[in-house]
Design goal:
With about 80 residues, the chain is of the alpha+beta class. It is built from 2 helices and 2 strands, in the order αββα. It has one domain.
């Protein structure tokens, strides 16, 4: 998990996964931060976060697009380091 500048927040920062925040119509992805990838939602506890196992029509489109970009960059970094 990335280091958070405030030590109290470090203990409650979510790890990652898809979550339905209260009053949200779509699931939003939290990736090592308190704020969703789309920057529209904040959570202090993920509770029942779901891993990214499949693409769902209930996913926030912005979160999905940014998560796909993060995953592609990670794959590129791994393939570049193995060459």
């Amino acid at each position: 998990m990335t280091e958070h500048p405030h030590p109290a927040v470090q203990d409650i920062a979510p790890t990652e996964g898809w979550v339905y925040p209260l009053n949200a119509r779509k699931a939003h992805y939290f990736y090592n931060e308190l704020v969703s990838l789309c920057r529209g939602w904040m959570m202090f506890s993920l509770g029942a976060a779901k891993p990214d196992t499949f693409e769902s029509p209930d996913d926030c489109k912005t979160c999905r697009r940014k998560l796909t970009k993060i995953q592609e960059e990670a794959k590129d970094a791994v393939s570049a380091s193995s060459e």
